Amino acid sequence: MLFVWGFWFEVPFESLQNMVSWAFISLGFVLGISLFVWGFFGKEELLIKGDKIELNKTAFGIGKKLSFSKSNIKEFSIDYSSVKDMTKGRSVMFGKNLGRIRFSNQGKIHAFGLSLSIDDAEKVKKLLNERLNVAA
After folding, report:
1. I need a labelling partner for 132 at 20 to 30 A (CA). Which of 16, 30, 36, 115 fits?
2. What is the pLDDT along the chain (136 residues), one digit of tens a residue?
3. What is the DSSP track for 29-43?
4. Whole-angstrom distance, CA of residue 109 vs CA of residue 129
């Protein structure tokens, strides 16, 4: 879109420096839009289907979809620290694997439910562990 605007108003692209600058502006624009869309329309789903567990983090059906074997997950746990402590001063929007509810799959920790209160996270954790046939 910015390139269309640039050509319409005859913004100079003749030098490599200008092209690189516009590439960074376009990248920032796309990143900003994607963060806005995730912030307002993003959805996290944890689906238990037979012997598989799926963790989907999507906005309008586009996003990260992970699948795990149920036998590799021992139990779900809760991170009781504050959101500020979880993010370590970084923006929540750029946080990777941030979330109140956590589980480990083959040594890698996955998390979801950052906006859950501790009470709600406890309820969800209990239900998930019961579904995994693990004592809460």
Report:
1. 115
2. 555 555 555 556 667 777 787 788 888 888 888 888 878 888 888 898 888 999 898 888 888 899 999 888 888 999 887 767 766 666 555 556 778 899 998 889 888 888 888 999 999 999 998 888 754 3
3. HHHHHHHHHHHHH-E
4. 16
The token duo for 77 is: 């746990």
Q: What is the pTM of this model?
A: 0.69
| Residue-range domain boundaries for the chain | 2-38, 43-131
Written as six digits, the tokens of 82 are 């504050």
Beta strands in 4-122 (DSSP E): 43-49, 52-59, 62-69, 76-78, 101-105, 108-112
> What type of residue sits at position 66?
L
User: Domain 43-131 adopts which CATH fold?
Assistant: PH-domain like (2.30.29)
